[in-house]
Amino acid sequence: ILDWSWPEDTGGRKDVSFTVLCKRCRQGQRVCEACRSNVRFLPRAAGLQNTTVTVGDLLAHTNYTFEIEAQNGVSQLAPTMRQYAAVTITTNQAAPSPVTVIRKDRTSRNSISLSWLEPERPNGIILDYEVKYYQKQEQETSYTILRSKGCNVTLGGLKADTAYLLQIRARTAAGYGASSRSFEFETSPDSFSISSESSQVVLIAISSSVAIILLTVLLYVVIGRFCGYSKSKQPDEKRLHFGNGHLRLPGIRTYVDPHTYEDPSQAVHEFAKELDASCIAIDKVVGAGEFGEVCSGRLRLPNKKEICVAIKTLKAGYTDKQRRDFLSEASIMGQFDHPNIIRLEGVVTRSKPVMIVTEYMENGSLDSFLKKHDAQFTGIQLVGMLRGIASGMRYLSDMGYVHRDLAARNILVNSNLVCKVSDFGLSRVLEDDPEAAYTTRGGKIPIRWTAPEAISYRKFTSASDAWSYGIVLWEVMSYGERPYWEMSNQDVIKAVDEGYRLPPPMDCPAALYQLMLDCWQKERNNRPKFEQIVSILDKLIRNPGSLKITANTSSRPANLLLDRSSSEVVPSLDTMGDWLDSVRTLPCKEAFSGVSYSSCDTLPKTSAEDLKKVGVTIVGPQKNIVSSIKALESHSKNGPVPV
Ligand code: AMP
């Protein structure tokens, strides 16, 4: 969406209009070419009366320059050069198109070597390829996944004389692209043997190769011993370990639970780079974590530019378990690579203090950031932040990782307003969250953010993360307000179970409130997947006009829950005073439709004399209703409310 300001000088005429010219600029080339004709301009590219245009159908990860020229009826007659304002942008990365060309390089009795061409539209920088293969006759019930950074792979440990089916998909920072079609390959038969003349040559070749490999391994071990461990094992091609290397689950799981490692420190070094403490300079303390202070500082690695980092430290006197739990966060974070997930730079485990070093997020956690900037962002900016969080969560759910503690306090914001999901861990996830409370079943859970099935029987899934996402959506749109205000955890559980949901925050676009309600569906399979959430938010960003339709709450108290089953339209009143008047004059049911904590039919008499005096009987946790009315009083523009 391009916006520009009106020209300073309209030439004394009223017939000013604007024309937008689109150019595509390839990296490293000075000359740009005109954009392809299928780039769409809404409402149009020329003769624009307003100072905005939406440009669609652009290519991902591409540089574009837009030139905006103001013209009037005599522009054609002006002898001077065209005058315009120009802006150059790079579109975000997208998932790559499928791999279409795969070639068999070599086959033996138990291995196949393959190579392939990069997808036609990489749509970004290809991070790696996922190769999935299985025996044809087993029909995908058991398959193996390999990851390769390059365009070739050797599948080993195969059965002789057997047909295998294989699919490849590429990944950019935006996620995986679609899989290629299935390609079929066969290993050589058991009886296959090399001819006698060539056997000697082959034997010599094999012995030399074995000798070279042994020498390389020896050298590697020796160098490793003398130079210290500097980087985790990051082979070009990484086999994921699922017991015997085969995955017998439907779906693809690429996140590896560090608990599955007998020795958790092995997991840390598998996924995190060991940093030398001398490369880290600590500047100041920026926060407090469960295990010690969080500091800001700088990391300068040899031959690399210095970068700002956050440094989490493990305080002295820790137990073995605390050290393990502290480092488990790094083992998890180190497996992720996405622009909306906090990036791990490395760990310091071989000297003290033990540290986890991550990218630095200048604006700290999202909840406090929003509170500090109450009502200061445009709808598009808020949706942009929410889109980032959803995209990070889509990546995590694709990886098979369930966060369990998604909340605005666990999102970090950088200086460009990019939001990143943080706070990963195993047992500690909920231990260090001050919001987490013990449930009757013993677990510690952040009640206000957690889906009912996760609270009642610990069913944590990506669908329960989607519920929490709905709460984050509410937190963002209300600039960091506390979900369910001062209600007790028990009252929240009860109210949610009875079907009540948080009302829309002030001026909340109706589409976003609908998305919240969808995330808070009781039936978890009906909640949107993160993929869908991202696409809904993308549509809103493309069509910012849609954000103007609000859920119409400005005239009513924001801190009463809504009955999900109530579809009645909220009465539109201009001031808080009007609302209170209407409460007093309308029959109870009408007055409270859509705004009450409970329906009037089931209102038992409350003993609150204060409320009786205004002729209103309300049920629900009484102290909350009373304090809600008090909150109304203090916010009322019309002075004290006669309670
Ligand atoms: P945590 O233990 O991850 O909840 O971190 C505690 C606090 O430290 C957060 O609430 C942030 O204020 C701050 N913090 C943590 N990580 C970072 C980071 N990468 N950049 C900036 N501040 C951070």
UniProtKB/TrEMBL annotation:
Gene Ontology cellular-component terms listed: dendrite; plasma membrane
Domain Fibronectin type-III: 1-94, 95-190
Catalytic activity entry: L-tyrosyl-[protein] + ATP = O-phospho-L-tyrosyl-[protein] + ADP + H(+)
One Pfam family hit: PK_Tyr_Ser-Thr
Transmembrane region(s): 201-223
Annotated EC: 2.7.10.1
Principal place of residence: membrane
Tagged with keyword Cell membrane: yes
Annotated residues for binding of ATP: K312
InterPro entries associated with the record: Eph_TM, Ephrin_rcpt_TKs, FN3_dom, FN3_sf, Ig-like_fold, Kinase-like_dom_sf, Prot_kinase_dom, Protein_kinase_ATP_BS
Ranges where the SAM domain occurs: 571-635
UniProt membrane topology term: Single-pass type I membrane protein
Protein kinase domain boundaries: 280-541
An annotated GO BP: axon guidance
Stored PROSITE patterns: FN3, PROTEIN_KINASE_ATP, PROTEIN_KINASE_DOM, PROTEIN_KINASE_TYR, SAM_DOMAIN
SMART domains tied to this protein: FN3, SAM, TyrKc
Listed GO MF terms: ATP binding; transmembrane-ephrin receptor activity
Gene3D superfamilies: Immunoglobulins, Phosphorylase Kinase, domain 1, Transcription Factor, Ets-1, Transferase(Phosphotransferase) domain 1
Subcellular localization: Cell membrane
Keyword annotations: ATP-binding, Cell membrane, Kinase, Membrane, Nucleotide-binding, Phosphoprotein, Receptor, Signal, Transferase, Transmembrane, Transmembrane helix, Tyrosine-protein kinase
Protein name according to UniProt: receptor protein-tyrosine kinase
Protein source organism: Hucho hucho
